[in-house]
Amino acid sequence: MRRFHVLIALLSTLGLILAACTAVQDTPSTAPDTSTEPDASSAPTDGGTASGGTVRIGVGGSPDSLNPGNGLLSEAYTLYELMYDTPIGINADGEFVPELASDWSVSDDGLTWTLTIIDNATFHDGEPLTAEDVAYSIQLYKDTEDFPFLPSYASYFETIEAPDETTVELTTAEPLGNFEANMIFMYIVPQHIWEAEDDPVAFENADMIGSGPFSLAEFSQGEFVELDTYAEYWGTQPTVDGVIFQTFDNPDARVTALTTGQVGAITEFPATAVSTLQNAEGVNVHIADIAAGGSLRDVFFNVTAEEDCPPDDGVCSGHPALRDLAVRQALAMATDKQQIIDVATLGTGSPGLSMVPPGLGEFYASDVEDWPFDPAAANTMLDDAGYEDADGDGVRECLADQDCETLTFRFNYADDIDTAAREAELIEGMWAEVGVAIEIQGLDPDTLTSVCCPAFDYDVMLWGWGSDPDPAFLLGVGLCDEIASGFNETGYCNPEFDELYFAQGVETDAATRVEQIREMQRLMVEEVPYIITYYQQSIQAWRTDTFTGWLDTDPTLGLEGPESLTSLRPAE
Amino acid sequence: MSGRGGYFLRKVGWALVTILVVVSFNFLLFRVLPGDPAKSGLRDPRLNPAAVEALRERFGLDKPVIFDIESGNLFDSQFTAYLGALSRGDLGTSYAFRDQPVSDLIGRALVNTLWLVVPSQALAILLGAALGLVAAWRRGRPLDAVALTFSLFMWSLPTFFLGIILLVAGAKWFGLPTAGRITIGAEFATFWDVAWDVGRHLLLPTLTLTLVLIGEYMLIMRSSVLDIFGEDYILTARATGLSTYRIIRHHALRNAMLPMVTLIALNLGFTVSGAIQVEAVYSWPGLGALTVDAVGDRDYPVLQGAFLMIAVSVVVANLIAELIYGWLDPRVSED
Q: What pTM was computed for the model?
């Protein structure tokens, strides 16, 4: 069992974006034409032009469960975000915004959180949504340990109570640094329906009654999800009549469906199709960082010190030279991240820095300077550290006190990542320039896990992570205590890092917590247990002649999120 | 119990044994694959360990695969549970599509597959046989060369490649849909509107499958008719002054159809599985697409069910072919 509560995310594919301009918050609308909305959504006339029409989105997968506790796939969370409300939302800039909770505050001791719940929300079956439902739902996620993800977000709360119809009180054992981040997955379900179920895990939830801007019309797994706009929605009413997510198993079929107008937008397609779509008439292609999450590609080193080797599972066969900081820093400078992005991902990535992707807003340590790509400096650094290529074979030899011959590293990559083999070859060429050789072998993820961690039976690995909207989850890979569990993949252990980690966990001052999180990133960049090669970007495309108002503001993007689908309106 | 009755029983017996072997082999085959179905391929340490355990327990994956040696109760295993459920006609519950019985999933998918495969097979058989016949008739002429080239080309063309080419061309030039079996969310006024919409969705996948199948039928038909043309009785018929049309119609065709019957029977067995690539290209929610998804998800119950379905249909089609042969050609059933 992990010592700290692991956070989640899954939502790397943008599901979580929340209506930034809700009725309750009453902020000025970002879309200038919102004022015309009541007209647009009133009585549909013939031809469907005055009504909003139905927007069709081509996707690659299909939700695995309609029960918000049971979902494993990002497609399921996309659906939950549209059908359910959460107490607190997160917008495309990674900022927390009011949703069902119009306001929230913490007591002076940092142990009691009080949320004010809006009084005009209703469920799709017409029943009012009250603070009771909010408390019931959080309690449900806390108590139902067999739900795969959500219990870890609700587990911090000792007591969950609704003293009146619009107030929810949550208490914690110690101050909670990322309270808001734990609220964004608390999908509020109707107590009057769920309490009749004996086993919430077995509950199919076929009607999917929530309080979000869309309600479920029809679902056929592996084929489509059809949503209707919920006319009584308390927040900003969508203009469209409904949304259809259609599953296209074949990426080429998805691209063709967009160019021929069968769908209005597609959310996943191969980078090779970008130029086709850019040349297509009436199609807009957008490549941007992923909102409130995102995934990264990393190259990481086995730096496990002897004393940290897990006693039960540890093999700890890492190459001794990789425990030398100079070698890792030199490799960081020998790695041309931009070339990897250009060649392997066809430009659909942004250069990596730390375990926190730019989609996490202010948590991203934009002030930390990365190692520059400078093979000459890398060579000098290795020369100075004493690694010489005495026999002239192009590969440097180890130091005399190291138990190794040459700087030749085993290099494993996850073979389910389609660009990984190409990336490994590129890195082989780059590192050869500084006298380092690698022996590349692709492995399937299960085998990779078995040699990776907590066995630490590898030298270098190329793999990746998906981030939570809160940085605490992924930064946990740097903790000393996580070496034995294998969540720490590198064996990296720095007490200063651990101290910062535990401090941010209980830090309720947002600005201080941001500083702590940035400092942790600075440490990891400095000590190079990871080279973060790039952050994956989202490639989405939509037709400009059917609907306008797709949320495409830089730097993030979320076509199928509630924020985007709410602001859509038919094109002129 | 000799002669025809004995032949019949022997064949049916062997078919049952084959299915039993397939049932056991299916079970082991998928468990040899690496991967943990409870995590369904997700590399995600954020999965709640309690939830993973609960999933394992629910799927019965906490039990040993074949023999339980440690607990003493030797037969409390996944295999015996599987056989027991199967004997009650229960194919289990899908891991990936939770709460859905495998029999429902497969039943729905099979109906969709048949919608696609039956018209394609029928068209391919008719057109393939006709083309083969004409080619044999015009042997060595330009028509034969064209038909032969066309058939060989279609037979060797990878299905998914042809599918994608037709998909792009059909969507671009004729506005045909690229996925699914009906326009989702559309409201249809009459039955004919529905039929029109379904027909448009069926057109490209059916065309692809027909073109892929047509070559084999044409080649078999052609060579079979050519064989018959070499027979003495055809020469005799020709000598009596019968027209080529009459020779084919009354003497050659029926005999030439014998190898076709075999091929058709065998192919019908495979058609259930044969549409996998076409279904994947056109997102057709049939048995093939279901199987492909199940492989990715390590969804053992669905895989076992689908493979059982495929195996049974192949074995049954073979059995029917053999029985028809025994009836058509009594020499077969006597040895």
A: 0.79
